[in-house]
Amino acid sequence: MRRVYIRKSMVEFEPRLVALTCLYLASKAEESIVQARNLVFYIKRLYPDEYNKYELKDILGMEMKVLEALDYYLVVFHPYRSLSEFLQDAALNDVNMNQITWGIVNDTYKMDLILVHPPYRIALACIYIASVHREKDITAWFEDLHEDMNLVKNIAMEILDFYENYRTITEEKVNSAFSKLALKL
After folding, report:
1. Which residues form the Cyclin N-terminal domain (predicted)?
2. In whole angstroms, how far apart are CA 108 and each of 45, 124, 160?
């Protein structure tokens, strides 16, 4: 969904309809197809007030618009493979480091990092954060990589900024934003 809004305005494409359409497209791309009519049925059943206005034709009509916004490119590479290899290479494959770094990578999906930075660099930033948190000195390992540490540290700062800002988000702020958006539509 974030990839759509990198190219299109939230005013142009209604977010709830785009969310439903992205869910439908994701099921098709992952070959666990959910029929659009079933999606509409269950969404209306789970969220009767918010999604009651959407019909099958709305999702199918938005499907092509979303695909066009994505340039028909549905593949997104993830940092998990790089993360596993890096942790093993740095001899940081103990349970605690694995849990912390995987948790940080999972949290990056709440941001748009995966759309802006290469997956391997996101993995390095997560390892960097976890190593500082666990007070493990892996400076020599990072130097052996010959990677631009300024870029890695910038990504790490984006992640840490996200954690800082995430604490201030409340349900009231989210509902207020949705209300303002509904008025614009």
Report:
1. 1-74
2. 31, 12, 10
Q: State the fold for domain 79-168.
A: Cyclin A; domain 1 (1.10.472)
pTM of the model: 0.67
Task: From residue 133, give the alpha-carbon distance in Å to each of 54, 71, 171.
Answer: 46, 39, 29
Within 8 A by CB and 6+ apart from 60, the residues are 36
CA dist 5 and 70 (Å) reads 10
Average pLDDT for residues 117-140, to the nearest whole number? Answer: 93
How much is the pLDDT for 120?
95
Nearest to 159, CA basis, from 110, 116, 118, 120: 110
Structural domain boundaries in the chain: 1-70, 79-168
Q: Is the pLDDT of residue 151 over 90?
A: yes
Residue 128's nearest CA partner among 111, 112, 106, 105 is: 105
**φ, ψ at 30 (rounded to 5°):** -90, 5
How far is residue 176's CA from residue 2's CA, in Å, rounded to a whole number?
Answer: 20
Amino acid letter, 114: I
